[in-house]
Amino acid sequence: MDYLPLASIVCAAFAVAFGAIGPALAEGRAVAAAMDAIARQPEAANTISRTLFVGLAMIETTAIYCLVIALLLLFANPLLG
Amino acid sequence: MNSPLDAVALFQIGPVPITQAILTTWGIMAVLLLGAFALTRRLTLTPGRRQAALELIVTTMDTQIRETTGAEPAPYRGFIGTLFLFILVANWSSLIPGLDPPTAQLETDAALAVLVFLSVIWFGVQGGGVAGYLRSFASPNVVMIPLNMLESVTRVFSMFVRLFGNVMSGVFVIGIVASLAGLLVPIPLMALDLLTGLVQAYIFAVLAMVFISATVEDGTPKSQKET
User: Fold this and answer.
1) Domain range list for chain B
2) Is residue A44 less than 8 Å (CB to CB) from chain B?
3) ipTM score above 0.95
């Protein structure tokens, strides 16, 4: 029996599942810190939210990498030929 | 479901397969080019409504460049601004029914990343000469040379995987939801996609700007920096 497709599917699911944990926690912390900063200094809200969005997109990228790996495993798996 | 990683050729011109992304890319290029050409024909000293809007766009870009890197925007405005506008229009082109954004294809993003890679070299050589560009690899000290060389490739790579992943995942999720739930359900996701598209275009342009200005700064000799 050929285990490679099975392993690929399981690994793709695991990649997305565990890859999403870190960025989720990190984004939560980032948003919380930004909220705190805006509450302290409402006049700086523009700069803070701009930096926040850029930072969030950066953090999100790690999750996106996992997604790309998962899609590679599912659709363009080099091992399956 | 179709793989998001490979493109379907619509037709062939000679040996070159033409995909939908290529057509969209050329369409966006034509729209941007003709738009820029038509809008800048009659520039006056006291701006009308159209020119005021244009100037608003340009000054916003200038402010962003100055705020993020502290560099004078004039030499970079053309490249960074075009990069931003192209990616923005490309990301938002999914609003037109039947079109997939060309940035959801790996090839388009790779081409943009190669542009950034080359422009870092170009601006680095222009800013500090060939010696200055080479010196920028030895910053902050000589031990970092192999790491800096590796970084100059990997940062560009991560840039294009980031853009590709974000845009492609948006398209992919909308495709899945539309196939599961019908016509109107993906609309909130599409609205989220607009935001993602804007933020990604902004990040791509800002990162390109940061890479360029870092190279230029590292390349300038210390004696010139103080003046």
Assistant:
1) 9-226
2) no
3) no
